[in-house]
Structures are given as structure tokens and as C-alpha cells.
Give the backbone structure.
Amino acid sequence: MLAKRIIPCLDVKDGRTVKGTNFVNLRDAGDIVELSSRYCEQGADELVFLDITASSDNRSTRCEWVKSVSRAINIPFTVGGGISSIKDVELLLACGADKISINSAALSRPRLIDELSYAFGAQCVVVAVDARKEEDGQWYTYVKGGRCRTDVKLYDWVKEACDRGAGEILFTSMDNDGTHSGYALEPLSVITSMVDVPVIASGGAGSLDHFYEAFAAGGAQAALAAGLFHYGQLTIPQVKKYLSEKGIEVRL
């Protein structure tokens, strides 16, 4: 059995880590290098770095920020924000990223997934999917850091992304984000049952049980959290110890 991964996430704005609720009301959460070093020392399996205003500002991720974090850690490092071309990915990999995460540009031009998977290998391509359940009962995808809704339905898009060569899906429920109410288990379990690639659960972690539920009920291969770790409510060793005691395979 593959070990389940615990992944802290840095949402970065103006070179600082920030955290909000439901993608709004952002507040400062700390220095990107300081937090990255802490999580690496605590035994994080990977680190995700998302430049959350890159797409809405129509720019690429700031490479100097990526370099500073890369120098501080020795774990797999995924970077997202404003990526729209092979050239963007080449630059970020040269700056120290191991994988890249795409969202808005992929929904705008789905063939980007094919191009990046062919050029760099599927294992390098994480497709991030931000979604919210609407009044019609359907889950719809959002772009531009959660600012703009699309007419593309969550499950249709996840399937297409995997068919095009995504190596991993990072699913964030916007309704659960920052609420500490737990991951959105219903859509998470649907996604994990319909694709053959690893799925990262994101949005809503607030307790040790929530991590367990993401794996045991949601079928996720990894669980991502941000504010819970940034503000010290839980540490990565606490989460891993709890999961191990509950029979979930993790790297201690």
C-alpha cells in the first residue's frame, strides 16, 4: 500500500503566505521561507505553493519566490499560478519546482494538459480544480483564484483532465475552504472512484478526524491543509501519529 501524503499549502500573495475563508477575506499567515522550512523539518511529504493572484493579474508566478522556497526545503515541491505554456513550466522547474499545478489556463485551453504531459511527463502535471456546489445541485468549476465561475461541471472536467494526461488531481471545495468543517467527502469520493490518478483532498481540514475521513471515506491519496498548520492548531507530526494509530499508512 502506498503511504498517504500530508501536504501543507502556501497560498502566496505579494510574496507572503495568506489564508482566507471560501477564497475571500485573506489574512497574513507568515513568511514563505520560514513556513516552508518548518514544514520540511516536521516531516511534510510535499509542499504546494500557489501564487493565488497570478492568473487574475495576467502574469506568471514570481520566480524569485519559488527559488527562495526551493532552497529551504528538500521535499517534492509543486508550484502553481499563472502557468499557461511550456516555457512557463521550464522556467519554474529551473527555479526549483518538481511539479506544476495548472487550473485557469487548462480550463481556458484544455489542450495545455496534453502539451505539458507530453513535454514533461504526466507525473509533473497536477491539475487543480476549484469547485462549488450551486443551487441546481451540480458542482461547477471556478477559475482566476475562485473569482469566476465556469459552465464546466466538476466531474466532467476531472475526467477530461485525466484523459488528457493529468498525473494528479488537486480538488478544492470552495464551500469548505477555510471553514475547518472537514473535507467535502461526497464529491471527493466520486472523484477518487472515477479516476486512476492520485487525488489530493483540499479545503476544510479542521481536526485530526478530518484527515482520517479524507482517506478512509473519501479515498484520497493525499490531504492538503493550510491555515490549520500555519496558525499552529495542529502539526504535521500530530496528524501523522493519529493516522498511523488509526491504521492509515503514512511516512513517520
